[in-house]
Design goal:
Elements: E1 6-7, E2 20-34, E3 37-50, H1 54-69, E4 87-95, H2 96-101, H3 124-130, E5 137-140, E6 151-154, E7 159-162, H4 163-168, H5 170-173, E8 174-178, H6 182-194, E9 208-217, E10 224-230, E11 240-243, E12 245-247, E13 252-260, E14 264-271, E15 277-279, E16 286-287, E17 295-296, E18 301-303, E19 306-312
Parallel strand pairs: 9-19
Antiparallel strand pairs: 1-8, 2-3, 2-8, 3-4, 4-6, 4-7, 5-6, 9-13, 10-11, 10-14, 11-15, 12-13, 14-16, 14-17, 18-19
């Protein structure tokens, strides 16, 4: 695996560059208004890297600087300003250990696979991530002079930030800049991943559901959690159970999974664990008793690009 070198004085003052890594990057997720009250929901990413093309960022900077030096305000209608950017494109970075454990998206109410086997050993898939052989992920390892633990970029998740805001916050929030040619490698892998072409699923797969969000309403008591298992690979084939995330504000249990319609599943009450999955044993696992037999993915209530399963149960 290649070590990425970072330097802090690579760019001119005020210049936003490809490969800049920022901390505490805020993203507005949703703005709601009800009865005159405005509610703003935002996500704060601990780390994010700029993947916009550096030539675009440079042209933007030169245009702003030229107008500023000539005493004109930005934007100006007296000169061409079609190269001024509205926003910069960023990809969040996640603690590599959390990615390995499958917990890096927990705070975003998303579930992820774990890259450890039952013996808590690294899987072959994780080793490929460390070697940057998996198109979706990019592994970062920093020199000792940069106070950042190893990180992983998940190219499926990206966002934009107003470029003026990011430029203003650069001195305060920028940690380092990935050096040439490593920054170009990151952006190239990102755009290659976005350019992939999805082919239609064969007829045997037409019942595949893009995503199913589970909302489970139940009281399992302190020190316990709700788990799910079922017939599909993503559900553990009745041998492995996956812990749902608890939303203390709504008092519900949540998880997102990619499943087939009519997949059989069932919920389990078990002691809380930090890991996302556990092998089912006969000891502390209590199966739900509010239904006879197994549940099935109904696919009735739509939710985003998938379906919503709201379940009220007891154990």
């Amino acid at each position: 695996m290649a070590e990425l070198h970072s330097i802090s004085l690579m760019n001119p003052p005020g210049r936003l560059s490809q490969g800049d890594i920022f901390r505490e990057v805020e993203v507005i997720e949703q703005v709601l208004e009800q009865d005159g009250i405005i509610e703003v929901k935002k996500i704060v990413f601990p780390l994010a890297i700029v993947v916009s093309q550096d030539c675009d960022l440079l042209q933007h900077y030169r245009g702003i600087k030229k107008n500023t030096d000539s005493g004109e305000s930005y934007p100006t209608s007296s000169k061409l300003n079609d190269k001024y950017l509205f926003s910069a494109l960023l990809v969040p970075l996640f603690n590599a250990e959390y990615v390995k454990q499958g917990t890096y998206l927990d705070e975003l109410e998303r579930s992820s696979v774990t890259f450890n086997n039952k013996k808590n050993e690294s899987t072959t898939a994780w080793k490929k991530i460390l070697q940057n052989e998996t198109p979706r992920y990019h592994y970062f390892e920093f020199p000792q002079t940069t106070p950042i633990v190893p990180q992983v970029a998940d190219f499926k998740h990206f966002f934009t930030v107003n470029i003026n805001y990011l430029t203003q916050k650069r001195q305060e929030l920028k940690i380092c800049t990935i050096d040439v040619p490593f920054r170009e490698q990151v952006s190239h892998r990102f755009y290659t991943y976005l350019a992939r072409i999805g082919t239609p699923a064969p007829e045997s797969d037409i019942d595949l559901i893009e995503m199913v969000r589970f909302k489970v309403i139940c009281d399992v008591g302190f020190g316990h959690a709700v788990f799910i298992t079922g017939q599909d690979e993503m559900l553990g084939k009745w041998k492995t159970a996956y812990r749902l995330n608890y939303d203390r504000y709504q008092n519900i249990w949540l998880t997102d999974l990619v499943l087939r319609k009519n997949s059989e599943f069932k919920l389990i009450k078990a002691p809380w664990i930090e890991e996302k999955s556990t092998v089912i044993t006969d000891g502390d696992f209590i199966w739900e008793n509010s239904i006879n037999g197994n549940r099935r993915i109904e696919g009735i209530q739509s939710y985003g690009n998938g379906w919503l399963e709201v379940i009220e149960t007891s154990f």
